[in-house]
Amino acid sequence: MSVPAAPHDAAPPGQPKKAATAAWIGSALEYYDFFIYGSAAALIFPKVFFDESDPATATLLSLATFGVAYAARPVGALFLGHFGDRVGRKKIMVFTLMLMGVSTFLIGCLPTRDQVGTLAPVLLVLCRVLQGISAAGEQASANSMTLEHAPPHRRGFFTSFTLSGTQGGQLLATLVFLPIAALPEEHLLSWGWRVPFWLSVGVAVVGFVIRRKLDETPAFAQQANSEGVVKLPLVVLLREHWADVLRVVAGALVASVSTIFTVWALAYATSDSVGMSRSSMLWVGALANLVALAAIPLWATLSDRIGRRPVFLVGAAGSAGAMFLYLWAISTGSYPLTMVLGIVAFGIVYSAANGVWPAFYGEMFSTRVRLSGMAIGTQIGFAVAGFAVTFAARIAGPDGDDWSAVALFTAALCVPPVIAALSAKETSKLPTEQLGERPRRPAAERETVTA
């Protein structure tokens, strides 16, 4: 006979902080792996894995491999979302971290194009697909874990730790690449670029130790003990929450701001047409992420007070204009101007949307399909955001310097998130157990299985 779980509010006092800390550290370590690929795709891989005789095409193909992981993420979300709502959040969090660590380490071991020819980029794409599958379940499981552990009046603050962890991982990846990028070209292209990828072994070990000690959430345990878990979460999700899934897909397009800032803008600024140094532009990203670490929890705390929708709208609409100014600053060749506007665009304005979406999206779904809803909705949107870099490289023209076209393209991708937020319900004041509630079908018709 199963024992009913304690009500959500009766969870041990230290669990919300423990869950948030595990989410922060795990996400930082996981996205360190994910983002070092972005830096390498912009700066290193065109020369290592592709034909250098056509630099523009090599860069385009390299940036396309960055987007491959985003294409794999919706597929990974279907499987990981399903099992996350069946077996719990904790097991998925451990699995995704280990998969990311292994696939990233293997990238550092790959032979180059000069060594094995076209097999090299094929192997690179396969490893990138594994990274994408891992990332598909990471944020959704970590967000579900923190939201379901958090006090109802502070869900925005606690769930923001997942995203500030993501920014921490991006900052760590940038800082690791700074000394690597400063190496002489010969050492950089032969062995130097491999070092950040090899460090993922430590990432996997540390993350495993942290996450395996985390308790399952009270909300999931109570659902499993009282009603059983859903046999087919996707069926329930699409039947009861299809409109919210579409909102999340549209809202997740705001991640295009991040990929354009992190990858395309870096490649553009260090191209011959602008001529900024690799190290100086990596410092722009590092400082912007450092500011974001402080801005994300502040924006999230504000959303606990005034609601998710207004804060998200500030981030989504503001990013359209802020990114236009940032790319313009790069085109001028002024490093101080680029630094200031980069920090404003990415560190402050974009952080409003980035910091609040974990709670905003998660609160749209009930406990029994929350991980599936967040994983599938975000990963479809993120897939578009990932390939936004490739589209930007096309839009920028043969010389890759039409920054205004890329700015307009980025602004257009910020429109669907604004529409999604305007059409969504405000959920910041609802009790956790009432989130995503829908009229329930008779017990005999529910597609659940006793836990």
Automatic annotation (TrEMBL):
This is MHS family MFS transporter. Residues 435-451 have a biased composition (Basic and acidic residues). InterPro entries: MFS_dom, MFS_sugar_transport-like, MFS_trans_sf. Residues 430-451 are annotated as: Disordered. The keyword Phosphoprotein does not apply. The chain crosses the membrane at residues 31-50, 56-80, 92-113, 157-181, 193-210, 248-269, 281-299, 311-331, 337-361, 373-397, 403-424. Residues 19-429 form the Major facilitator superfamily (MFS) profile domain. Keywords: Cell membrane, Membrane, Transmembrane, Transmembrane helix, Transport. Its main location: membrane. It is a multi-pass membrane protein. It is found in: Cell membrane. SUPFAM superfamilies: MFS general substrate transporter.
